[in-house]
Predict the structure.
Amino acid sequence: MNDRSLQKLEFDKITARVAAYCGFSLSRELAERLTPAASAYEAEQLQAETEEARQLIRNFPTFALGGLWDIRPHLRHAEIGGVLEPQQLVNVSDLCRAARQAKSFFSELKGNYPLLTALGKSLIVIKTIETAVEKAIGADMQVNDNASERLAGLRRKGRDKGERIKEKLDGMIRNPATVKFLQEPIVTIREGRFVVPVRQEYRGAVPGVAHDTSASGATVFIEPLAVMELNNELAAIRREEDEEIAAILRALSMVVAGFADELNADLALLARLDFIMAKGQYSYELDGCMPKINRQGRIRLIKARHPLIPAERVVPIDVLLERNIQAMVITGPNTGGKTVTLKTIGLLTAMAMAGLHIPAEYGSELSAFAGIYADIGDEQSIEQSLSTFSSHMSNIVEISAEAKEDCLVLLDELGAGTDPTEGAALAMAILRYLKERGAKIVATTHYSELKAFAYNNEGFINASMEFDIATLSPTYRLQMGIPGKSNAFEISRRLGLDESIIDAAAASLSTEDVAVAAMLAELEDLRRSLSEQQQQLQQREQDMRQREQQLTAARQLAARQHAEAIAAANNEAQRILDETLEKSRALYQQQQQQIAEKKSAERVWQETQKQLKSWREQLEKQRPEPVFAGDAPKKVEAGDYFYLPKLDKYGYALAGEDNGEVLLQVGLIKLRAKLKDIRAAQPREEQGGRKSYGGGKIAVNKAAAVESSLDLHGLETMEALPLLDKYIDDAFIAGLRQVQINHGRGTGALRRFVREYLRGHRLVRSYRDGDNYEGGRGVTIVELDQ
């Protein structure tokens, strides 16, 4: 990429804004060195990184890479044998912690973030440094007592020695005979030694060594002879303490040096991650989108905005340059927005190639150009500078020599600054030359000759900046396919110029000028007509969308009402079941009273079973048939996928219909279902592309919840019946092959009831008494027919 052209497009200001979101100097360096990618593939990868960062910020707004420091100088110092200061060691430890936490976050991250996850998982966890530094150095950046046993002992001795010195000096300042010599009755420290403040006039009254004098000279800080030896001993202890601290810092520095390669790798990865997150943050600031990158030279910008113009002032533009259009010539009044449009196209192309989102609507598309060349006069730019014909031509000479196929060339006020006739001729020749070299060209001009040139030459298209005649001001909107009008006559007329002067001026126009003016007027009328048609089509489209929404709402209401009707029918069935069970309990209690009166409990049991059977038959007759949404299939083939509403499961048909029934594979089990009880369904996809089957999901859930034994101790037979019935079904669905029913010994009634229930059960293969170690006759071991 041409660095001077990027500077003219103010790309450096974009990178500065990205750098402002970076967390430390290393990632800011990456942002400041950011340039457009050399290939479309690289640009697409960079765009994907930014999109992942934007989505991550949206889904995890509290995520941040904290504790980032540029530790490169620390590592170089440690590698040559230097000793790091506590703050430097803490910086290294903070970076290790940041790497560990980031690796943990990205390792557990759910969602589609392949590029960020790959970077995060590549981080190296160096717990050794993190733990050692946390133990040795405190929040005050001082070496902790527990950094080593020797340091703890020395500091303990130092504190004891200091207390002894203070005790001696406290006795001195409380002594009436000596307190009169003191400026204040306090103990202080000078040059690391305990001293007392003595009045200047009593300096000789207190034997000792003077270490300091107050600013006024009225106070002398004297170390009394009585504590001099203790102070010497304390100083020796502190020297040993300093030596031990130096040894600890040296040892920690050696550990850091040993992990220098790993730390440098983590530093580079964290800088890259922080830089990518900064791109995502800048995308949010811009309200940007991820543009599509193509290789065909196509430019499609929808509601594109210049990123350096405040949002409340910028006017969005739409640009469409298909592959067969090699050059666009933009005309329009001064200060009408031509230069801003030129810069917007060039800057957004550079941003897209650098992996930055662009301030435009989704659906925008930019080409991966091999180079971007710009000759832009700054008289209307943000920087407000001046240019000359010679400087313009020097840039164009360089661009003409370097520009080739798949390059984007931006030319502002082409041919300006010289004789209009020569300038126009030169401009047309330059445009023709660059087109022949295969470059994509966007140029601005005031020359009317270039409008006709673009109109009459294949591969060129006119465009203009709209001007509001009513307000005599530009609207800054780009009009594709329409050359700009000078509007000089109309503006003069509205400003009050005499009509005869305007007529005289019009009469002096050449035939060619009149023809061009007529062409422009015709094109403007055509544009206005097309604009009205477009508005009508948009209104119709909006009406159709509203109609579609109304129909959708009506369908949803009908579906909801149908579901409510089904739920009401099922609730009624449940009510009948509950009522019948309540009657069964009452009957059971009645039979229990009869058992006490009768001699044969077995006969009572049989009568109870008959009555229960009668209730079940009555229940089956009274219970309404459940109603389910949808229609039963008319034809079944092996492999068809179905939903079983009664079980709320999904399964595949293993064979075709057989006497109104279908053999289904539901998760881990096979079962037969009536044709009227199944509904056609579409296979559902789980995460990772695996198919989900209703039965399998139920089986997994059941397996996690169903235990291998059921305890019925103390229950009456009618209380045990629903529990036992549900447990056998749940255990079978969960895939259990053997279960244990704990009924106890007691009178044997509950055991006989369990055996009677299990006999002939469709899901039970066999049953037996438990072995001695299993509970003997107090349990029944059931083998399920899996």
User: Anything to note?
Assistant: The two ends are 70 Å apart (CA to CA). DSSP finds 23 helices and 25 strands in the chain.
